[in-house]
Each structure stands twice: as structure tokens, then as C-alpha cells.
Amino acid sequence: MNDADTWPAQLQRMLDEFGGGTQWDVINAGVYGYSAFQGLRYLQSKGFALEPDVVIVQFWANDAERWSMSDREAARRLALTQWERPLMRSRFYCWLKLTMQHTNLVRILAPDGPMVRESPEEFAQSLRAIRDACHRRGVKTAFVVWPVREQWSAPFPRPNEYQRIIEEVARGAGSSTAVLNLFEVFARAETSPYLDPVHANPEGCRLMAEEGKAVLGTLYSAGADAPERTP
Hints:
Helix content is 48%, strand content 8%.
């Protein structure tokens, strides 16, 4: 799909057409494969440097994926690897590490078997951290509840645990936070709004952009305090 068909690009065009004398700048800060844990790290290290007025938060599908280790464990090991570099000059340390890799101690520290990248509890923690970090800086947030194609095609679609957490985190945050629920939006689509089991096609992105524009209207009363940029 072309970049012009993505929902951030379509939202940018809709806001430009809306006019009203306000300069809108929609920044697509999405990274393929990121979880909410990684999104929080990005927001803290780079996102706030963009001085956003609104942050649109869209996660859960990657968080629910099963990997050999959780995102938090992967981050911990990466940090340990960075500290380990000076030690790798020691032959004794290299021998000890190689020996440990062939013992059951490694299995105790990092058990085998698939695990979700973020458990529901960790996912809620990451979302609350994003919400609270934005709130401390006076940045508004809009949390997206994104259904997958299997849910869209079901006769009576129901949100999963991760999607329910998104609503719970967003709805308990006051007027500076809004919920963008695509269950209802995609249900109005005459044809499938999906490009694959998770991602939207250009029509689905259009629906998302339209709802995003409406949600921005709820965050700003009568155009007051309108933002200049919206990642």
C-alpha cells in the first residue's frame, strides 16, 4: 500500500481540507512490529522531542504475539549485553559463559517455550505509562481499539482482553484522553476494510482517518487550543 493511502496521510488531507486557519501536521510515527512497550520507549526517547499536542496510540496485536521471550526480557538482555562488552576481553569470562550455556542454569534463567511479548498486565502498564507521560506534559491522547479481520467478519464480534484494556485505560483518564473504537466504524463498511488479517486497506484507512478527525473534534472544543502537529 502506498504511503498516501495510510490513515495518517489521509487524516492529514482531511484536516487540510477542514481548514479553519489551523496548521495541522500529522506525523506517522508507527514502526512495523512495535509493541506498546517499544512504543513507550520511542515516545520517551524521540516522540516528545517532536513536541506533539496529541498522540494517537494504536497497539495490541504485536503485544499478543508469542515469541521466545517477552519484550521486557529482550530489553533486559540487551542492556546486559551492553554492560558485558568489557568483560568479553577476559578469556575466563568467555569460558565461564560458554560453560553456562550447556547447563540447566540457563534453562532456569530463560525457560524454553513461547510467551506473549507483553502479558495483559504488562500491556496495561505500558499504556498507562504512555497516557501518564503525555498527561504530565499537557499532551492529549487518543487510544485506538483496532479489531482484526476475524472479529470484523464474526456475526457478534467481541473485544478480546487486550482491546478491553485499551478502553479501560483510556476511559479512566478524563477529558484529555479519547477512545477511537473501530469496531463500530468498520461494521459500517460495505466491503472488507482489511488488507490482511490485521492491517487495513485504503478504504479501511479512510474510515480510520474520518473517525480520527471526529475524535480530534471531541478533544478540542470549538477549535480552541487546536494543535499544530499530531503524531
